[in-house]
Amino acid sequence: MSDSYITIVPTGVTNEKAKELSKKSFDWLIEKEIISKEKTDCVLGQNFGYAPGLRYKDIIDGDDFGLLNIKTNGLEFILERRVFDSGENELEEINCPNCGFNNIDSEWGEKIGSWINEENDKINCQECDNDSSITDYIFEPTWGLGEFGLTFWNWPSLTLDFLNELRKLFDTDIKVINGRL
Asked: Where are the beta strands (DSSP E) in 21-147?
């Protein structure tokens, strides 16, 4: 069985703001008892995360599918500039934020590298000739390029109410990335 994840990435957030949002969201999730306060070995990789708290079911949509019975079931806070992708789900489209044209045949991979290195990351749309940052393009399946992400390992779908609360907490829109390894 493979592991799945849901990553939430606030959009347009600077490195400094990312640190603030990380702490703010951690405190908020602890207060709401969505996650436990102690770090444990409950996420994939070499990092530690936070296991589901007493009220984790408040934010999931439907059945929890035995979340507490599996080892990899935590929330990971990722505070670094990174591409939050959908794992083994192959990228199908990279749509221009101006006209919607699919620029999958552009130099988008190079521009992601430029974005990571904090260099010129603008792509010139092949259809409308508009220059936009790679971070503004719309990826299908959803990817998020950001400084901060919350990854819920093996959690079922999150409620729309919870996602909207995060938008308010972050005071910005979010990308929700569903992935599988």
From this structure: 35-40, 49-52, 75-78, 82-84, 93-95, 122-124, 131-133, 138-140, 144-146
Centroid of chain to Cα 165: 15
pTM above 0.90, yes or no: yes
**Bridge partners (DSSP) listed for residue 87:** 180
Q: With the C-alpha atoms ordered 90, 141, 69, 22, is the resulting torsion angle positive or negative?
A: positive
Handedness of CA 2, 176, 155, 26 (dihedral sign): positive
Per-residue confidence band for 1, with pLDDT thresholds at 50, 70 and 90: low
Residue type, 130: N
Summarised one tens digit per residue, pLDDT across range 156-178 is 999 999 999 999 999 999 999 99
**Which has the closest alpha carbon to 75: 166, 168, 141?**
166
Q: Write the CB contacts of 84 (distance below 8 Å, at least 6 apart in sequence).
A: 7, 9, 78, 143, 144, 145, 146, 149, 151, 175, 177
Distance of CA 157 to the CA centre of its chain: 14
Task: Please give the structure tokens belonging to residue 148.
Answer: 């901060």
Give pLDDT, residue 66. 93
